[in-house]
């Protein structure tokens, strides 16, 4: 019953692929295997003209025709209709994409580092020639989030995005949560299993998530958000006991990218930040396990939306890249200029100090009468109001505390777990500093923000 | 720091709105209140030229300028650049949209009934003039699902969609599940609260979900799926004891729209069906509560994705409509022809009998020796293999059974809950008929399919 397919009936578009790593080799494979099907959907025949790589003899994840490989990216780019950049890094990726745009090609990229640092330059170059930059794969892997933010929610006002956008850190935190394992142990395991790089800094210190946060915030708030405006904290200081305490209070710890519309001094602004935060176990984001990603979006009219799926992986990310290739091909066939970026709102990004949030603070204190009063008075002087206090007595044999409502007996140390009410971040962090300097506080064990309430 | 905004700097586009019900009045309100912001995003000034309604004096959800209202839809349509149809029903909606397309306008509609029955006609009319039909609001309300399927996944192969796409039935089933209430009781409550219509047939009999299933399947499989190819069953026969039994087996009952790529006699086909099904409580769809919607998509490369949010509601749906209006405006500014529908795969839709699924069958049987053997032999003759059997003895005082592993004593009736292995639907339903006709079976209490395993 199916019609005979023939890509011959379509206009042929030359597709150049730059890079043949985990994602690139899958993109090439799918382009070659599903050519007829993709042609029917795009209304154009997608001819893989070549694959530019540094080393044509390197081993690839998928076997591909040797004659497609070249080290001469520039010759491949010139004369192509669609250029897919999956090399990563800033240069030569950026130069190649600018060359592609100036040669009249539409470009598809998954390069979050490049977009977060030089996106404006690329978008402007595309604008000048009426081409488009597609980058669905640059944030949250296979999860369609770019089009929903750019198009579906273009008539709405996004209030807040909370995203689990880094699979490695979610994998690590999830295993720490389910197994009680410690960070170093799970990281080593993740490296063995290929979930984390040999140098895990980009993931565990939140750099990767910060790049994605800048991309998502730019789209959501129609504003260019520079990467250095993103506040960033990683997960290396998260301990099993922090996860244990979080659980006891009904929370799970997730590395979140938070993009928020806030009003500061009466004017509309945005805050973009990445940090490990406490999320209620009843929040939809709490049930995002393993290396999965999810983006939770709150908009004025649409209400709460969530987008969930694989955040990484070669073939998964290749799906997002190929969706962009089909879109680019359709635009080539349809004619007209590409739709440019929408950054006219141009809202200022404010420093973290202006953000309204609430803290969960764990202190190690002298176990003697009057300590709680002293701590409470420091909090009150800092303008921070207390919502909950739990006191536990440290058991030195296990290093973990047991909950206690008995009066302190002056014989050692105790833990105070203080949940504050919402306050400005600056007041909260100043108060934590004051607590750290206080005579009765032996140690500030941990400070975590609560999100998603 | 924000730039001064001025919609005067943009080309003006005339927007006509047809219908001012729950969604339409919110769309008009947002267009009027956020005009400058929308202009910045669209690159065009969106001028609400008028609102066509049957009765200009009817009470609206939102107060709107009286001078915008007209009963003359045709005059409003001619000369408009974008026409938003939110009247519902087939005529005059269809005639109005065809007039709009033939007058050179792009059209935005949330009319699932019209799209599911006359979509092809609209898309062809749009194709002929190079215009576009936008309909993000027609399936799953505010949840962006149309663009992800049409664009983001255009380079992938969707294997299966399982959607909770009707908020009313999810609200009813969720309350039955959490409160143990019966269908009629919760339906009456839902009607009082405005979650269900006075005539609830379209929702509870699955007609609304079937329309959305046809739309989603058409997009996902690049195939025109006619509404009458969708197998449809409603939820009116779901009882509290079925929900109770489902819970005991680790399931929750959800009304699902299932769109599936299947191979029949060696050739690729699709199945589209709507019915109440058992879903494991660990499946992401199980935690979709209240009137929310969610669409779970499995694709060959992307893996599992889920899209979650509000499936209905005036202002929520208005968000999706306005996203489409901004997209239409951008296309007007960019030039070129609209991107047509992709239906070249043209896969046949097969009847439900070909589907491979598995059943959970509850039987009322004579409580005497040999019954299980007789039932097992009927199943085996039908080619249906048994995965689990639970026998309970009916307690006539409560009407519910208690689990029993004791041998039947011949003194009354017992229940057999049989979970089958996967088999062709035809074999399963034939076997249920044979069971119903069997001497030892007093009554087939319920038959439910299991999905999402």
Automatic annotation (TrEMBL), chains A, B:
GO biological process terms on file: methionine biosynthetic process; threonine biosynthetic process
Record-annotated ACT domain positions: 360-452
Binding site for NADP(+): 18-25
Catalytic activity: L-homoserine + NADP(+) = L-aspartate 4-semialdehyde + NADPH + H(+); L-homoserine + NAD(+) = L-aspartate 4-semialdehyde + NADH + H(+)
Record's keyword annotation contains Membrane: no
Family matches, as InterPro entries: ACT-like_dom_sf, ACT_dom, Asp/hSer_DH_NAD-bd, HDH, HDH_cat, HDH_CS, NAD(P)-bd_dom_sf
EC number: 1.1.1.3
Gene Ontology molecular function: homoserine dehydrogenase activity; NADP binding
Pathway in which the depicted protein is active: Amino-acid biosynthesis; L-threonine biosynthesis; L-threonine from L-aspartate: step 3/5; Amino-acid biosynthesis; L-methionine biosynthesis via de novo pathway; L-homoserine from L-aspartate: step 3/3
UniProt keywords, alphabetically: Amino-acid biosynthesis, Methionine biosynthesis, NADP, Oxidoreductase, Sodium, Threonine biosynthesis
Transmembrane segments annotated in the record for this chain: none
Cofactor: a metal cation
UniProt cross-references to PROSITE patterns, sorted A to Z: ACT, HOMOSER_DHGENASE
Annotated residues for binding of NADPH: 112
Active site annotation, chain numbering: 212 (proton donor)
Binding site for L-homoserine: 197
Family (UniProt): Belongs to the homoserine dehydrogenase family.
Biological role: Catalyzes the conversion of L-aspartate-beta-semialdehyde (L-Asa) to L-homoserine (L-Hse), the third step in the biosynthesis of threonine and methionine from aspartate.
Protein name (record): Homoserine dehydrogenase
Lineage: Bacteria, Bacillati, Actinomycetota, Actinomycetes, Micrococcales
Recorded name of the encoding gene: thrA
């Amino acid at each position: 019953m199916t019609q005979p397919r023939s890509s011959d009936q379509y206009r042929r578009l030359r597709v150049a692929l730059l890079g043949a790593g985990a994602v690139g080799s899958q993109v090439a494979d799918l382009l070659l295997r599903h050519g007829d099907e993709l042609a029917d959907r795009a209304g154009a025949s997608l001819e893989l003209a070549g694959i530019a790589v540094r080393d044509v003899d390197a081993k690839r994840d998928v076997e591909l025709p040797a004659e497609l490989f070249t080290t001469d990216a520039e010759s491949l780019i010139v004369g192509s209709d669609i250029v897919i950049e999956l090399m990563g890094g800033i240069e030569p990726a950026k130069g190649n994409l600018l060359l592609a745009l100036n040669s009249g090609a539409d470009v598809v990229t998954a390069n979050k580092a490049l977009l977060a640092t030089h996106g404006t330059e690329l978008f402007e170059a595309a604008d000048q020639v009426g081409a488009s930059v597609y980058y669905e794969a640059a944030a949250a892997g296979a999860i369609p989030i770019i089009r929903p933010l750019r198009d579906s929610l273009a008539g709405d006002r996004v209030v807040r995005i909370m995203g689990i956008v880094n699979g490695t850190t979610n994998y690590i935190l999830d295993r720490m949560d389910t197994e009680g394992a410690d960070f170093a142990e799970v990281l080593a395991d993740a490296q063995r299993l290929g979930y984390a790089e040999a140098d895990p800094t980009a993931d565990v210190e939140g750099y990767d998530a910060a790049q994605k946060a800048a991309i998502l915030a730019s789209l959501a708030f129609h504003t260019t958000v520079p990467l250095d405006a993103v506040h960033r904290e990683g997960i290396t200081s998260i301990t099993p006991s922090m996860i244990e305490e979080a659980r006891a209070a009904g929370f799970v710890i997730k590395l979140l990218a938070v993009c928020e519309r806030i009003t500061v001094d009466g004017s509309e602004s945005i805050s973009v930040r990445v940090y490990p935060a406490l999320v209620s176990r009843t929040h939809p984001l709490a049930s995002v396990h393993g290396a999965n990603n999810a983006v939770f979006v709150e908009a004025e009219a649409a209400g709460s939306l969530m987008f969930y799926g694989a955040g990484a992986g070669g073939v998964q990310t290749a799906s997002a890249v190929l969706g962009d290739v089909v879109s680019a091909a359709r635009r080539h066939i349809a004619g007209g200029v590409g739709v440019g970026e929408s950054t006219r709102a141009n809202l200022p990004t404010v420093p973290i100090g202006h953000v309204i949030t609430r803290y969960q603070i764990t202190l190690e204190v002298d176990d003697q009468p009057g300590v709680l009063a002293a701590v409470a008075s420091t909090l009150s002087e800092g303008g921070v109001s207390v919502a909950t206090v739990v006191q536990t007595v440290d058991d030195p044999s296990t290093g973990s505390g047991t909950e206690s409502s008995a009066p302190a007996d002056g014989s050692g140390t105790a833990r105070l777990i203080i949940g504050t009410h919402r306050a400005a971040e600056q007041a909260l962090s100043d108060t934590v500093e004051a607590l750290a300097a206080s005579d009765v506080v032996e140690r500030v064990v941990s400070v975590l923000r609560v999100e998603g309430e």
